[in-house]
Amino acid sequence: MARVIQQDRPAGKAFAPEYQGALGSLSVNSSLTEVLAKGVEELRAAERAGQLEEMARCGLAVAEACRRLGRIEEADAAWKASYRAARSAQATGAMAWALWSGGTLARQRGSLALAYRLLRLAAELGERGGDVVVRGYSLAGLAETGRIQGDYEAVGELHEQLLAEARRRGEARHTVWALEGIAQMHRNTGSYDKALALFEEAATTAGRADDRRGRAWALRGIADVVSVRDGDVERALALLGEAESICREMTLSSALAYNHKMRGNVRYRAGRYQQARDDYALALAEFEEIDEPRGAALSRLGLTKALARLGRNPAETVVELADLRRALDRIGLRHARDMVDKATAELGVGPLPGTTARAEEAVTR
């Protein structure tokens, strides 16, 4: 059975199990442009040699680099080609990894039903093939999909289970992911102290493991909590500035866009509406460029609120909020949909067409 866990890596250090075969020496911190260039080079070499499993392994890295760079159509073609090569080679683990990549891409594109289907298949194949890492990553993908929908009761226990498994196996990168997911649920339900402690643990763990991507996401979470809980604008902006530097150095397009959206949130809470407007507009353009509808919708919501505070016609605000609510319904983001209801009540422009007094009550939640 092919093994995908890299050997001879320093204990406690983060590694990237999606970089396999000839790409196994790449670091979790390798720039995505470097990963893509080397991935394409090695994929072509594997194709010339007729090495199907190696084609699948290299194609996985190409798919993931393209996805994270926002090159969506290329990512879609790459994970499917990786799966076909793995299936032809009867490499169960490689098939599971390709499906994991496809499911992650589907979630990024807002196709949550497809994400669930592909990630469940990936977890099943991972278990059948004895690859505990891809099984864990696939279950984590299912948990994250449920979390971004706001279904915390259903996925909270799974997050805790995956955190325990990651700690037991010493997988720092997966530990950081689980800590951040649990922290985000606490933050969204108002448990700010618990959320902050978990985000800070994630940042520390990522730092020790040299997981720069994980640290960038953790810093964003810390910035969010210190902004909403403490009103500490300058500390939040400094944390986001540090995270932004990491995102730019590693070419993390999606993480950078979410960073800019959070900067808008911080400034909006502080009443700096013009700066917030500019941040949200920047994030919206970045999300649209990488075809990420969830981030785009959340940026539109922030932009709509900022424009309303700057004197936009209330009727235009109502139209925009109603359209946003429909868009979030289509994606299936219940928590984000509630955010629209709260914004409607906060701005005093509701109720929206086709809604009930729920929007007016939402602000008290």
UniProtKB/TrEMBL annotation:
Source domain of life is: Bacteria
Give the SUPFAM superfamilies listed for this entry: TPR-like (SSF48452)
Extract the InterPro entries matched here.
Answer: TPR-like_helical_dom_sf (IPR011990)
Gene3D superfamilies found in the cross-reference section? Tetratricopeptide repeat domain (1.25.40.10)
Q: Name a Pfam family for this protein.
A: TPR_12
Query: What stretch or stretches form a coiled coil here?
Result: none
Instruction: Name it.
Output: Tetratricopeptide repeat protein
Source species of the chain: Streptomyces argenteolus
